[in-house]
Amino acid sequence: MTLLLVDTVPESIFHRDLSNGLRLNPHLAKASALVLAIDPTQIDPSGELLPRHRRLPPDPYVIHGSFLFDLIRLLEHSQAAGQGLQFDTPLAVVVTKCDLLRDAGLIEWNRLWNTDFRHSGSFCRAAHEDMNGMMAQVLCRLIPEVYNVIRLRFRRHAVFGVSATGCAPMNGKYPHISPWRVEDPLLWLLAEFGLIPTN
């Protein structure tokens, strides 16, 4: 299985190359699956969802979905897919820094995402659907246009939430680094390809 990671962070090489297609077509043609990482601190256009000190300047390239339209255009070219047709390539949409979203009230504390549940021995479809549904709602609230395009163009897609460092800094230092849920999108993709058991 070959994964292609596309990141909306401005410093990402993919962020720059999506708009012109440089170097990406060969990777897209060989990709078994796509992982799209979205930084929520870039997509608070109203300025009301996240605390001011947690926000980055809104990135129009992300907010208006231009990065996704560029990715779709390249996919259509590299996979010879017709315009408007659904892609068979699985897409894992990963919303990063979800501990910030939780602290801002966008993820409720009593949701399964906040527990110590882990897929153990097999991939639990019921737990996945719970967290996928919750994160799809969060993504739809943040950038509804982007979510709707994903839903329409990618036959197999799921939305995941991962934390940042997993803890708050103390005296300018992190006591430990323990991100939450970073394995979930990879486990889902493995399950989609039948490489791990499901229940």
In short:
This protein is an alpha/beta fold. The chain contains eight helices and four strands.
Question: Which short descriptors sum up this protein?
Answer:
single chain; globular; alpha/beta; 199 residues
Topology (SSEs and partners):
Elements lengths: L2 E5 L5 H5 L6 H7 L2 E6 L21 H4 L2 H13 L12 E5 L2 H6 L21 H18 L1 H10 L3 E5 L22 H9 L7
Parallel strand pairs: 1-2, 2-3, 3-4
Helix pairs in contact: 2-4, 6-7
Descriptive account of the structure:
The chain has 199 residues and is an alpha/beta fold. Helices cover 36% and strands 11% of the residues. It has helices at 13-17, 24-30, 60-63, 66-78, 98-103, 125-142, 144-153, 184-192; strands at residues 3-7, 33-38, 91-95, 157-161. It has a four-stranded parallel β-sheet with strand order 1-2-3-4. The longest helix has 18 residues, at 125-142. The chain starts with a strand and ends in a 7-residue tail after the last helix. The mean pLDDT is 78.
